[in-house]
Amino acid sequence: MAKIHINIGSNQNREANIVGAIDFLRLNFSDIKISDIFESPAQGFKGDDFYNVGVNATTKLTPCDVNLVLKDIEKKLGRKTTQPKFSSRLIDLDLVTYDLVISPDLNIPRDDILKYNFVLLPLAQLNADEFHPITGKTYQQLSATMRPLKSYNIKILNGVIS
After folding, report:
1. Is 0.90 surpassed by the pTM of this model?
2. pLDDT tens per residue across span 49-94
3. Cβ proximity of 69 and 27 under 8 Å
4. Spatial contact of 118 and 18, defined as CB atoms under 8 Å apart
5. Which of 3, 36, 136, 161 is 20 to 30 A from 102, alpha carbon to alpha carbon?
6. Where along the chain do its domains lie?
7. What angle do CA 113, 36, 81 make, to 5 degrees?
8. pLDDT at residue 158 above 80?
9. In terms of CATH, what superfamily is 2-110+151-161?
10. Distances (CA, A) of 47 to 73, 86, 88
């Protein structure tokens, strides 16, 4: 079984879309662990603030198959594939890490880890002492260089964030 980390982002109907994504992730993956919600401003465009959540899980799927599952979940939640890269999102699911695999073709580990606090901070919260396979630094060490974000401890009960 491979350990994976997925980043979920939404700035439209944020709570409902994140809960929906987590429900679908639970149907497709095992050993789900969820970070706090991190709130961040839109990057590269004017828009509402995003909620981002990190999810650790395990899977027998290959990285390519994980990406297919994530795209299918986005589609089921109503994401349109014709949106510009920097725009508001109903839902965005990205495979951030897959064990210690390094695959530039699949963007694993996702280069956004080193660019955006909304990707790194949830990852570091769930995997503080694990090492980034390229830099060799722990996610906690990397996160110490990032600007903090407002975060909310979450519990999801009966499809509702509390």
Report:
1. yes
2. 999 999 999 999 999 999 999 999 999 998 877 766 666 788 999 9
3. no
4. no
5. 36
6. 2-110+151-161
7. 55
8. no
9. 7,8-Dihydro-6-hydroxymethylpterin-pyrophosphokinase HPPK (3.30.70.560)
10. 23, 10, 6
